[in-house]
Amino acid sequence: MRCEKRLQGQTGYTYLFLIVSIVLIGLAVSVVARSWKTEIKREKEAELLFRGDQIRQAIGLYYLTPRAGFNAYPKKLEDLVRDPSSSATRRYLRKLYKDPITNDDFELVKEGDALKGVRSKSTDTPMKDGNFPPVYQQFALAQS
Asked: Among the listed ranges 11-15, 43-47, 58-62, 121-125, which one has the minimum average pLDDT value?
């Protein structure tokens, strides 16, 4: 009889402990998910910088290769994968890259019909805002 009274007074503590545990697990999962999302965005931005730099270097090499006695910029990105002005297969890029942020094609930066560069179509605010190589110092002020 004494044992029954003690059990009746302790009902609900296990249920309360279970609810508190579930709330704490939920909070922990949300913190992990938020930091995981941040890490994915940082990786995509790093990949964007890498791909953009590869295209920038390819355009520079294309320009430095003389064609009929003068230098020229490519007319389209495909010219960097296979140079149409060369009889031999000449590649400045191994493949055409897509924008890792939008998963779409890059927006082309042209002057007339000459391809001068590419940029992302994303309007998101970048996470990285400093420590850029000297070539990309202007990216520190970028809003998208």
From this structure: 11-15
CA-angle at 79, arms to 75 and 81, nearest 5°: 155
3: pLDDT strictly greater than 80:
no
C-alpha 91/C-alpha 79 separation (Å) is: 8
For residue 70, report the phi and psi dihedrals to the nearest 5 degrees: -145, 160
For the chain, count helices (H), then strands (E). 3, 2
pLDDT of residue 77: 93
d(CA 144, CA 73): 26
The DSSP bridge partners found for residue 117 are: 109
pTM metric for this prediction: 0.77
